[in-house]
Amino acid sequence: MASMEAEVKALVLKNPSYQIWVTGHSLGGAMASLASTWLGYYNIALRKNIILYTFGMPRVDGARGTTDVTCQAPLQRTLAAERKNIVEKSHCADELSRYDPALSYKMLLLSAVAYDPVHPQECLDNSLPYAEFQLQTVVTKNCDFADHGCSGYVAVSRALKAIVVAFRGSLDLIKHSPNS
């Protein structure tokens, strides 16, 4: 199993014109935000090709002010499900893109695929069958102080000319939530 980093770098080298769709839910949204910053800051992909959508993401940037690293991140689109609104923000002097509901829905489905550790390719096929996504790698790691498992995957769609980097938060946190 290849690392996500190696897989993304290889796919971007082979497909430099493809968009890189980075997405995640909860803690996975935070990881997606950091991954998109990494992609831009280290010039792994053109910043204009990186599209980030997160869902229920905790804040990952510092308090007021930004750094040069943050300005390398693409425009972030965060879905606040409890408020049912979209927040578009950019920390730099970028022109804000318009919110795309169709792409947001695709990104939501793609972030949900990360929650299927057994059959992610089948889940991809069922979620967006016309896209013909091919799963490249899946990685699961302990991601917090309690050794909860988080995972992510990399997939590519030749039909959509997109590379997907998606993350999920910890299933353990969901199972042990006091409100569940």
SSE layout:
Elements: H1 4-14, E1 19-25, H2 27-41, E2 50-55, H3 68-71, E3 76-80, E4 85-89, H4 101-113, H5 120-127, E5 133-142, E6 149-157, E7 162-168, H6 171-175
Parallel strand pairs: 1-2, 1-7, 2-3
Antiparallel strand pairs: 3-4, 5-6, 6-7
Helix pairs in contact: 4-5
Describe this structure in words.
One of its GO terms (biological process) is lipid metabolic process. The chain crosses the membrane at residues 20-42. Keywords: Membrane, Transmembrane, Transmembrane helix. It comes from Desmophyllum pertusum. InterPro entries: AB_hydrolase_fold, Fungal_lipase-type. The chain has 180 residues and is an alpha/beta fold. It has 6 helices and 7 strands; from the N terminus they run H-E-H-E-H-E-E-H-H-E-E-E-H. Strands 4-3-2-1-7-6-5 form a 7-stranded mixed beta sheet, sandwiched between helices. Strand 3 and strand 4 (85-89) form a beta hairpin. Mean pLDDT is 76; it is low at 63-73, 79-91 and 173-180.
Oligomeric organization of the protein chains: single chain
Order of helices and strands: HEHEHEEHHEEEH
Roughly what percent helix?
25-40%
Report the strand count.
7
- Strand adjacency order, main sheet: 4-3-2-1-7-6-5
> What would you call the structural class?
alpha/beta
Query: Between the first and last Cα atoms, what is the distance in angstroms?
Result: 34 Å
The number of helical elements comes to 6
Summarize the biggest pleated sheet.
7 strands, mixed
Stretches where pLDDT is under 50 for at least 5 consecutive residues are: 63-73, 79-91, 173-180
Shape: globular
In terms of DSSP E residues, the strand content is 25-35%
| Radius of gyration from the alpha-carbon trace, in angstroms | 16 Å
Overall pLDDT confidence: 76
Protein name: Fungal lipase-type domain-containing protein
Domain Fungal lipase-type: 3-60
Transmembrane segments: 20-42
GO biological process, one term: lipid metabolic process
